[in-house]
UniProtKB/TrEMBL annotation:
One of its GO terms (cellular component) is plasma membrane. The keyword Manganese does not apply. One of its GO terms (biological process) is regulation of establishment of cell polarity. Gene3D superfamilies: 1.20.80.10, Ankyrin repeat-containing domain, KRIT, N-terminal Nudix domain, NPxY motif-rich region, Phosphatidylinositol 3-kinase Catalytic Subunit, Chain A, domain 1, Pleckstrin-homology domain (PH domain)/Phosphotyrosine-binding domain (PTB). ANK repeats lie at residues 329-357, 358-381. Keywords: ANK repeat. It comes from Crassostrea virginica (Eastern oyster). Residues 426-754 form the FERM domain. It comes from the Eukaryota. This is Krev interaction trapped protein 1-like.
Length: 764
């Protein structure tokens, strides 16, 4: 029985085809009923608002399904035109991770026939304007935010899609879901006249007296029929259940429930695993019962740890091979309780969060079987998700706590609870370049390394470790200093020592109270633009590169020509317009937000002429992009790529920036930013943001005198007199010189073509 205080969210599902039960789940196979209040005025240009039907549950004495179907019938027109659903099924959903305000809703799915249509005249008159919309359209508009959906609708559309996907995975479930109701299929109904029809019940008067409302003729017919029936059928003994009809609460107790994970998957192949007498003879060789690609599965099943260790090196591509019935090798190791095999597989790169067909991770399986040693190996890995939900919305801890609880399951549960408590209490924020952040687990406390955090973040962002673990890494940043951390560094140590020691040591800043450190996920400074960065294709990776490049451009760290400034500003305007070319809107936006589109020094130098030249470039460049944008599914990614294409032509793009001073003579100095990237070293005036010098590695040599540890001297290789050309002073010279040498060695054969840009306001 549903709680009487709940409101019902109604998901009316209509198949577009008759044979959906024979197909894999796809959103475009179904229509969903949505409502839309006609409250907006005709001149309003706001986004349309659509939502799932909602109504309060009022009748608690009967099954909620009857009231749900009755409300659907009235909602869609009532007498003569209303839609009668096949059945009302409550969808169980986990409210733990949602706001408390959502827990008062109950989600019901009502399947209807393909031929059920809404009456057009009723729809036009209805204030709710009901209509069927394709589920793939709903999901698309949820993602791109072109239609306004209330929070409950957003939540429950996601729940409905997950539920439908699960039903498609169950053989025969969809066919049953959309089958006609039994009472609709009845052609003829015959009642035993000896029993009174249920509609004639005893009526209660206000005085408290009970009156039999059954008509006399029906009572007479029933008595006559009962008399004749008793003449024919005489029972010798009648036993009444005293509890039946007594309204006593009765809660059936399940002592133990076991689900056969292979139910509905056909007849098992009993020859898949070798007999025990074969184990000693087969060793590490291949067996005819095992295809080559399941070689690791066989070794895990045999428990041949030595062969697993040897094979992990030369058949590593099989470590994540998914068997159609038994999942990945790591799942089998968890099921067998082979902790040593699990450890080898994890150390060799197996994903500890890999899911089988039931949505279960290795930790789910090890927890269910009570294999504490395997549980311990899994929770050692910082990237292991301790609270993943399987397809039945159960966590590994839930599986441990199933009745009856054996001692081994209790130990496994204690291990998982301790790990969860440790993770919850120790987390750290890592910021992305778009301003958002992710909370990552300090799985090893203060000893958690950059490598551990980077892998966690990649998995949280759904980015494959290869190659993105090499392209992006974690930096520690504050107002005066930014440092890329090494994989073995422990960020907590750097955070503790940042204001106390590191900032003052590398910058000379005496008041470090404003140097609050944060961890940021940014481009790896060692990555080459030609050889590596151009291979980045994932939308989230493109987005990260774009926001870092935009940050550096706006802050004047990318000195460039006026023409490039106009192009960058035009692309940023078009991004703000969501890819929709509109010169009038662009001019208004430029006037109000020019400081967010142009670096401050250039704006100060050329402010009065910038608007007209930017608008001219906007019409020329962005107008020409409209044909290309028509064929792009995601305008944002397309324009971000265009922005990066222009950035990569700049000498300074991809630089790690340091601070110091240029020493033109012994009596004066110029504060500067020092950029080091894959092509060379670049010196930018800190105040005016003008490029003072830009050297390619192929054109210079440098020295870092031991007698002057804070100085870097740069010489031209074409200078026969061997005289010193440029002298830089910085407390970060050791870092600068080390990075220069590293990048020169890494990228000496693939220098990209760049524009060397100098002069005031970015002119050549």
């Amino acid at each position: 029985m549903v709680n009487y205080e709940m409101e019902v969210i109604l998901a009316v599902v209509q198949p577009k085809q008759n044979n959906v039960f024979t197909q894999e789940y796809r959103p475009k196979l179904y229509n969903i009923l949505l409502l839309d209040h006609k409250t907006a005025s005709s001149g309003e240009k706001g986004k349309p608002t659509k939502y799932l039907p909602t109504f309060p549950l009022t009748n608690v004495q009967e099954e909620a399904g009857d009231e749900v179907l009755a409300n659907l019938y009235q909602l869609t027109g009532g007498d003569h035109v209303g839609i009668k659903g096949e059945r009302a099924l409550q969808i169980q959903w986990s409210s733990d991770k949602y706001r408390e305000s959502l827990t008062r809703f109950a989600l019901f799915c009502v399947p209807v026939n393909k031929g059920d249509k809404l009456n057009r005249m009723f729809v036009e008159k209805s204030p709710d304007y009901p209509g069927f919309f394709s589920l793939d359209y709903i999901i698309e508009t949820l993602n791109n935010d072109t239609v306004a959906y209330p929070p409950p609708t957003r939540t429950f559309i996601s729940q409905l899609e997950s539920w439908m996907r699960e039903k498609h995975a169950m053989p025969g479930a969809i066919n049953i879901l959309f089958s006609r109701r039994a009472d609709y299929r009845v052609k003829l109904s015959v009642n035993n006249p000896a029993f009174l029809p249920s509609r004639f019940e005893h009526a209660h008067e206000s005085s408290g007296m009970v009156i039999d409302s059954t008509p006399d003729e029906i009572r007479h017919t029933a008595r006559e029929a009962l008399t004749r029936m008793l003449e024919i059928e005489k029972c010798e003994k009648v036993v009444l259940n005293p509890v039946f009809g007594s309204s006593f609460p009765c809660k059936p107790k399940v002592v133990r429930a076991e689900v056969n994970i292979y139910w509905g998957k056909g007849v098992p192949d009993y020859n898949m695993w070798p007999n025990s007498h074969r184990n000693s003879s087969t060793g590490g060789s291949y067996d005819s019962l095992y295809p080559e690609k399941y070689h690791i599965h066989r070794l895990v099943n045999e428990g041949n740890v030595k062969a697993i260790r040897d094979s992990a090196a030369y058949v590593s591509h099989l470590l994540d091979e998914k068997h159609p019935k038994y999942g990945m090798p790591i799942h089998l190791a968890a099921y067998k309780g082979n902790a040593e095999a699990a450890r080898i597989l994890l150390d060799s790169g197996c994903n500890p969060n890999a899911l089988n067909d039931l949505g279960q991770s290795p930790l789910h399986i090890a927890a269910k079987e009570g294999h504490c040693a395997v549980v311990q190996e899994l929770i050692k890995k910082p990237e292991t998700s301790l609270e993943l939900l399987d397809k039945q919305n159960r966590t590994p801890l839930n599986l441990c706590e199933q009745d009856p609880r054996s001692p081994k399951h209790q130990r496994a549960a204690n291990l998982i609870m301790a790990a969860i408590k440790k993770v919850v209490n120790r987390q750290i924020a890592v910021y992305l370049m778009d301003g958002t952040f992710r909370m990552l687990n300090l799985s090893q406390g203060d000893h958690t390394t950059v490598q551990h955090l980077n892998l966690q973040l990649l998995r949280a962002l759904n980015l494959p470790p290869k190659p993105y673990a090499d392209y992006f890494t974690i930096w520690i940043c504050s107002k005066s200093l930014e440092l890329q951390l090494k994989l073995e560094h422990k960020p907590m140590d750097h955070l503790h020592n940042w204001q106390r020691k590191i900032v003052s040591m590398l910058t000379g800043v005496t008041d470090t109270s404003k140097e609050t450190p944060t961890l940021k996920w940014r481009r790896n400074a060692k990555v080459g633009v030609v050889s590596e960065e151009r291979e980045v294709t994932h939308p989230l990776a493109i987005r990260t590169l774009f926001y870092e490049a935009k940050h550096n451009y706006i802050n004047g760290l990318y000195p460039c020509k006026d023409h490039d400034v106009h192009t960058f500003a035009s692309i940023l305007i078009l991004l703000e317009q969501e890819g929709k070319y509109d010169p009038g809107n662009a001019k208004s936006y430029l006037h109000k937000n020019v400081s967010n589109l142009v670096p401050a020094p250039i704006l100060k130098a050329k402010g009065q002429h910038l608007s007209s030249t930017i608008m001219k470039r906007y019409k020329e460049y962005c107008g020409g992009l409209q044909e290309d944008l028509k064929f792009q599914n995601k305008y944002e990614q397309f324009l971000q790529r265009k922005f990066l294409e222009f950035c990569r032509k700049l000498t300074v793009y991809g630089s790690a920036f340091f601070t110091g001073s240029l020493q033109p003579n012994s009596k004066s100095s110029i504060l500067c930013h020092i950029g080091v990237n894959d092509v060379g070293i670049h010196i930018i005036n800190m105040k005016t943001k003008v490029m003072l010098y830009s050297f390619l590695y192929s054109d210079i040599r440098w020295s870092h005198p031991e007698a002057q540890p804070n100085y870097l001297e740069i010489y031209s290789v074409n200078d026969n007199s061997d005289s010193r050309q440029v002298k830089i002073k910085s407390r970060q010279v050791g870092l600068i010189e080390h990075l220069m040498q590293k990048l020169k060695d890494l990228h000496q054969y693939d220098d990209r073509q760049v524009n060397l840009v100098f002069g005031t306001s970015g002119r050549r």
